[in-house]
């Protein structure tokens, strides 16, 4: 069994989801009392948030690269970044280590293509929806992404940081997300990327007819496959 290094803390809520899902998947595969061999560096989220607000992506990238180097020194065989938005600085991380980096867009795109879907709605933080890194990453893999209106993006972003990241799950926010998804469907979305690892805490597949691509769940499956590779 390989040892996976997780860069977490962005937010702690989603990191808990990763930890639970990866261990559950490994246990389902191995049985008994087996669990995943995991190492973790949990960064200070407020420091990352301030970098985001200031547009200081270089500093954020250096913080996460340092975390990746620490995990490699601790014995990790691969690195996973337990967040969507900070994949904006994925090159800092992959360039800092000699071990594999499990990219969330690679994993998500493959799941979408496996369902013969080429156009998706993208939900996430403002950075994920507005910046090119995520949509371009999907486009390079043959997938077109539709994003909500600017007004909707602002409210989606607010809900993530003011509610989901601190464990608040409000029914009115769930209904707002579902209305945005309905709007994206009207624009041609064949499926919806839950492109923030906290969104899956608020809505789930049974809430809507379009296929949901829960990135935390997909990424966790990729992680468990990596951990069990060669078993």
Notes on the structure:
The strands form 2 sheets. The protein has a 4-stranded parallel β-sheet, with helices on both faces. The chain has a 4-stranded parallel β-sheet with strand order 6-5-7-8, with helices on both faces. With 231 residues, the chain is of the alpha/beta class. 52% of the residues lie in helices and 14% in strands.
What attributes characterize this protein structure?
231 residues, alpha/beta, 4-stranded parallel sheet, 8 strands
Number of strands: 8
Q: Using only CA atoms, what is the Rg?
A: 17 Å
Q: Share of helix among residues?
A: 40-55%
Shape: globular
What's the end-to-end separation, in Å? 6 Å
Main pleated-sheet profile: 4 strands, parallel
The overall pLDDT average reads 96
- Assign the structural class, choosing from mainly alpha, mainly beta, alpha/beta, alpha+beta, or little secondary structure: alpha/beta
The helix count comes to 10
Task: Tell me the β content.
Answer: 5-15%
Order of helices and strands: EHEHHEHEHEHHEHHEEH
Low-confidence segments, ≥5 residues, pLDDT <50?
A: none
Strand order in the sheet with the most strands: 2-1-3-4
Keywords: Isomerase
Organism: Frederiksenia canicola
GO molecular function: amino-acid racemase activity
Family: Belongs to the aspartate/glutamate racemases family.
């Amino acid at each position: 069994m390989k040892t996976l290094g997780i860069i977490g803390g962005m937010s702690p809520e989603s990191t808990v989801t990763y930890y639970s899902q990866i261990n559950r998947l490994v246990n389902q595969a191995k049985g008994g009392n087996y669990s995943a061999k995991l190492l973790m560096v949990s960064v200070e989220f407020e420091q990352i948030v301030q970098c985001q607000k200031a547009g200081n992506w270089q500093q954020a990238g250096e913080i996460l690269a340092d975390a990746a180097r620490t995990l490699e020194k601790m014995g990790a065989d691969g690195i996973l970044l337990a967040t969507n938005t900070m994949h904006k600085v994925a090159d800092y991380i992959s360039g800092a280590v000699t071990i594999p980096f499990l990219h969330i867009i690679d994993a998500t795109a493959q799941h979408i293509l496996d369902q013969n879907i080429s156009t998706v709605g993208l939900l996430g933080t403002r950075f994920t929806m507005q910046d090119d890194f995520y949509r371009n990453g999907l486009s390079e893999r043959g997938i077109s992404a539709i994003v909500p209106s600017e007004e909707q993006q602002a409210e989606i972003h607010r809900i993530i940081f003011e509610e989901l990241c601190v464990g608040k799950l409000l029914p009115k926010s769930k209904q707002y997300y579902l209305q945005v998804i309905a709007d994206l469907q009207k624009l041609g979305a064949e499926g919806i990327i839950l492109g923030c690892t906290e969104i899956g805490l608020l809505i789930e597949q049974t809430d809507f007819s379009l296929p949901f691509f829960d990135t935390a769940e997909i990424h966790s499956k990729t992680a468990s496959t990596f951990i069990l590779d060669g078993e």
